[in-house]
Specification:
The protein contains six helices and 13 strands. The chain is an alpha+beta fold and 310 residues long. It has two domains: 196 residues, no CATH class; 104 residues, Immunoglobulin-like, CATH 2.60.40. The strands form four sheets. Strands 5-7-8-13-10-11 form a six-stranded antiparallel sheet, with helices on one face. It has a three-stranded antiparallel sheet with strand order 6-9-12, with no helix packed on it. Strands 1-2 form a two-stranded parallel ribbon. Strand 7 and strand 8 form a beta hairpin. The longest helix is centred in the N-terminal third of the chain and has 16 residues. The protein is globular.
């Protein structure tokens, strides 16, 4: 890029923009597991070249592990970047570059909470995290429960979604087609259908941790329970991450809801719903016990509290 110079980078960006201007289903990602450093102007020219022909193009930057794009691309001088690519795995995994804000690689919700507090805030997506089928801390292979955990953590901590990563990301054999049948990939479809069943884009993350008053787990670990509520106060969504197969007990403050409500358990591994016939009053604290094993040898569940319709 340095040899090409900024002028040629601009020409290249305009070429791409003109070539793909009629394709509305593209997301443009600059970088690629590296920080811009001395070529930030070059990336900017490519992006602005694309923007010339596709003014509303979705563009972001893929920084090095585990920096988010907002860590390495200043907002105010880079208007082309209209959403943030967040990037982290989990505590205990080594990063290529020290995560200066945390001192070590943080959990997904920690990164998202930090991003949500940025001003001016921009939409963000979990662009890369643990790949299903690859090694985790302790050299254990990441199962589908890790993919689910990242996806639900991400949306419930303020993001627009998450990217799914597969063991076969290099696609260096014909087996890359098998990825669509992997359990974690299948679970991403369940996650999408769940969130699209209500106005997920109205969710406000409970950054201060006020909704769950008991049993939420420990912040900064993988047992932490993340919650969010819709701005019209009609939905409250809580994700209990996998910790084994046992049931988990949480106490929930329902004062954020605007009407009496019902609470259902949504199974993120199957898409099934266990209905609770009780009606709970607002301005109360209620104890809920999760069903335990979700049928996949894990105990992650979603508590879905919905206000009664008039």
């Amino acid at each position: 890029m340095i040899k090409n110079g900024t002028n040629n980078c601009r020409v290249y960006g305009e070429y791409l923009g003109k070539l793909f201007k009629d394709h509305k289903n593209l997301v443009w990602i600059q970088g690629g597991d590296r920080d811009p450093l001395d070529v930030i102007d070059h990336y900017r020219e490519i992006a602005n070249g694309i923007k010339k022909y596709i003014p509303d193009a979705l563009q972001t930057y893929h920084a090095s592990s585990s920096n988010s794009s907002s860590d390495v691309i200043p907002y105010f001088s880079n208007g082309w970047m209209n959403f943030v690519f967040t990037y982290t795995y989990f505590r205990g995994k080594m990063a290529w570059l020290t995560y200066l804000k945390f001192g070590e690689m943080p959990e997904v919700y920690e990164v998202n909470y930090f991003e949500y507090s940025n001003r001016p805030i921009r939409p963000y997506v979990l662009g890369e995290s643990q790949y299903e089928g690859e090694g985790t801390a302790g050299n254990q292979i990441a199962g589908p429960e890790i993919a689910r955990r990242q996806a639900y953590w991400s949306v419930l901590s303020g993001s627009c979604g998450s990217a799914y990563g597969s063991w076969n990301w290099k696609m260096d054999t014909a087996r890359w087609r098998d990825v669509k049948n992997d359990r974690g990939a299948w679970d991403m479809g369940i996650s999408r259908r769940f969130f699209e069943s209500f106005n997920w884009y109205d969710l406000i993350p409970d950054i201060e941790g006020k909704i769950i008053t008991e049993g939420k787990g420990v912040f900064g670990t993988n047992n932490y329970t993340v919650a969010a509520y819709t701005s019209d106060r009609s939905h409250l969504v809580i994700y209990l991450p996998p910790t084994g197969t046992d049931k988990r007990t949480i106490k929930v403050d329902l004062s954020l809801l605007n009407k009496p409500c019902r609470a259902n358990w949504f199974n993120p591994a199957t898409g099934e719903i266990i209905e609770d016939k009780n009606i709970y009053q607002v301005n109360t604290q209620q104890v809920f016990v999760s069903p335990g094993n979700n049928g996949e040898g894990q105990n992650d569940w979603v508590l879905w509290v919905v206000a009664e319709k008039e």
